[in-house]
Write a structure and sequence with these properties.
This protein has 2 domains: about 220 residues, Metalloenzyme, LuxS/M16 peptidase-like (Cytochrome Bc1 Complex, Chain A, domain 1, 2-Layer Sandwich), CATH 3.30.830.10; about 190 residues, 2-Layer Sandwich (Cytochrome Bc1 Complex, Chain A, domain 1). Helices cover about 45% and strands about 20% of the residues. Strand 1 and strand 2 form a beta hairpin.
Amino acid sequence: MDYTKTKLSNGLRVITVPMPSHESVTVTLWVKAGSRDEEKRLNGISHFFEHMAFKGSKKRPTARKVSEAIDSIGGEFNAGTSKEWTNFYVKCRNTHIKIAFDVISDMILNPILDNKEIEKEKGVILEEIALHEDTPVMKIGDLFEELIFEGSPLSRDISGTPESVKAMVRNDILRYIDEHYFAGNILLTVAGGIEEKEVFKLAGQYFAYLKSKTRLAARQGQSGSKELLNKQLKPKVKLKTKKSDQAHLIIGFRGYGKGKSSRFAEAILATILGGGMSSRLFLEVRDKRGLAYSIATSSDHYKDSGYFATYAGVALNKIEEAIKVILSEHKKLQNSKTLISKEELKKAKEFLKGHLALALEDTKDINYFFGEEELLLGCILTPEDVFEKVNKVTIEDVVAVAKDLFKTEKLNLAIIGPYEDKQKFVKLIT
């Protein structure tokens, strides 16, 4: 897949991925700032501004005017906040790409941030936080990251806390924008039926006046938090006692950062364990024993850290058995390279490549593929590069990752369910 990367004079990076057969285009603006870059008292402010950007801008002073601009061209637009980035996108017919640039740039460069709208949006976000709290299948991931990244800004919730959200004022948002929304900290990705020259022309037209740096950037040299992630020395358990008809759990190990080359072997390991309906954990936990309806394993990465984790929703009286079986399947992969057959390795590789190929049929997902790599690592792997790296992974590579990851001292267990005794789960994993 061909792409072009260029940079405006103010430092804004622009990546274009032409897809001549497509009549659609997705324009995505990425900011290298998320919840891990926030002051503790302003936890959730990245997410708060993501919401406020849609509430009115200089050219379109109300939320209705903003949404009508995209609805009038039959497009879709949205935004997202993670712990390491915030993004905004418009997807539309390629004949309307200029409107996409106009709307996104106006939202980001000229937000009104009306005080009345700020107070109204606080209520919306508080309801969003409450929804997560009341939905265990959504909350369990947050609980697990609170545990595994304890003491680090990575442990904080992206949406913030009710207390931090209620305390935010307009000047806090303005200062946050000033510190993080500058050209050198922003990336523009555009994929679809486009002409590269037109994209560069529009980028210059709508983002040339984006400031090149901020006082914060001058002091720090770059944006991003500077915290160190402490080495885990013993297994940990976090239990959230909540009345429910099903227990939700995540078992996981502290792993590698996004840039580590072994992430491809890690992805194959996750696929073998719990990457599909023919994976080891699905067959053993669900099909053979009937302990869970849903079970899946993934490897998740931040720039400098990550984790390898398995989620399961299990019957309340089967949780201890489920935990034992899940850990047993992990331990099997530490013992000998002969425990992974050539056929199983090949199946896992094709599973990964097939899912990536399917995802890249959508221009929005293509922007994610290129955007996250460039934004966080400053480099780009094409899909062909990824396929090649996946193909080179050996059984020995996968076993080596399993031996390094699956150590008792790296183990973490988060649970949501109607349980009171945390210690019985501690004993179960030590």
